[in-house]
Design brief:
Blueprint (H helix, E strand, L loop, with lengths): L2 H5 L24 E3 L18 E4 L6 H12 L3 E3 H9 L3 H14 L9 H37 L6 E3 L10 H11 L3 E6 L4 H14 L6 H9 L9 E4 L5 H12 L7
Parallel strand pairs: 2-4, 2-5, 3-4, 5-6
Antiparallel strand pairs: 1-6
Helix pairs in contact: 2-9, 3-5, 4-5, 5-6, 7-8
Length: 261
């Protein structure tokens, strides 16, 4: 499945079947891997106090909730790519031009981004028609990076939630721009469990419990196309922890001492 197909895939959640892959044994709580490897000497080395803390991961991983907790406990400002992304997308000429075409085809309400799936489906259709599939993929990558950069810019040190997918880009130009934007940040990847299928099952259950829809294929894609280890300071497996415990696990992985409550 291509990246854009995964993102725009139907969001209905199928019922579990007996043919589902067997789940691997659950791991002990609180696992954190530093730097994408097992270099024990690097684990829990304190990050510089002036570094931004950036949370990334798939939909439902707890990025927004954890970011709010961390920002409050560390007395830092918080920014979210999900709240900045639509304005950031529209700074790109290709998106502005496509929205004019969308308005002609579908009416002026086509620019309404409250229904994100419908908006992106229409935007993709216009860009594929006018620039081909390659043009759509390049524009989509540029959109995601533009949103990430918008969140990373600003006063700091801050706690920043990049939202689902804003750190998953494909073109070399977008990858290089994202790497430059993340330079000097403490980047934390969140996911429930080390095994992809365990994480997909947990994420679907979490999202369904709060009335949100997700595509298993999109979640699987995000987990299999995560940020390269060289750009990731550490991975934190949230498992069945509550938001406060996840925030503490992030701080422990980064070598940060939380102030008393």
């Amino acid at each position: 499945m291509t990246r854009e197909a995964a993102i725009l895939a139907p969001t209905s959640i199928p019922a579990p079947t007996s043919s589902s892959p067997p789940r691997t044994p659950l791991r002990p709580l609180g696992r954190a891997v530093r730097g994408g490897d097992d270099d024990a000497g690097r684990r829990n080395a304190p990050i510089p106090l002036d570094q931004n803390i950036v949370l990334i991961g798939p939909q439902g991983a707890g990025k927004s909730t954890t970011a709010r907790r961390l920002a409050r406990r560390l007395d830092r400002p918080r920014r979210s790519a999900d709240t900045l992304c639509w304005a950031a997308y529209r700074t790109l000429p290709a998106v502005r031009d496509a929205e004019l075409e969308m308005a002609q085809r579908f009416g002026p309400e086509a620019r309404d981004d409250r229904d994100r799936h419908r908006y992106l489906t229409r935007l993709r259709a216009v860009l594929v028609d006018t620039h081909g599939r390659r043009g759509w993929r390049e524009t989509w990558d540029a959109m995601r990076v533009q949103a990430a950069v918008a969140a990373l810019e600003g006063p700091g040190p801050a706690v920043i939630d990049l939202g689902a997918g804003h750190a998953t880009v494909e073109t070399p130009e977008s990858q290089e721009r994202l790497a430059q934007a993340l330079a000097g940040c403490a980047v934390v990847w969140l996911q429930p469990w080390p095994a992809v299928e365990d994480s997909v099952a947990a994420l679907l259950a979490r999202l369904e419990a709060v009335g949100r829809r997700a595509s298993p294929e999109a979640l699987r894609y995000a987990l299999n196309h995560r940020l390269p280890p060289r750009l990731c300071t550490c991975t934190v497996y949230t498992e069945d922890k509550g938001p406060g415990a996840v925030a503490e696990a992030v701080c422990e992985a980064l070598g940060i001492s939380l102030p008393p409550r």
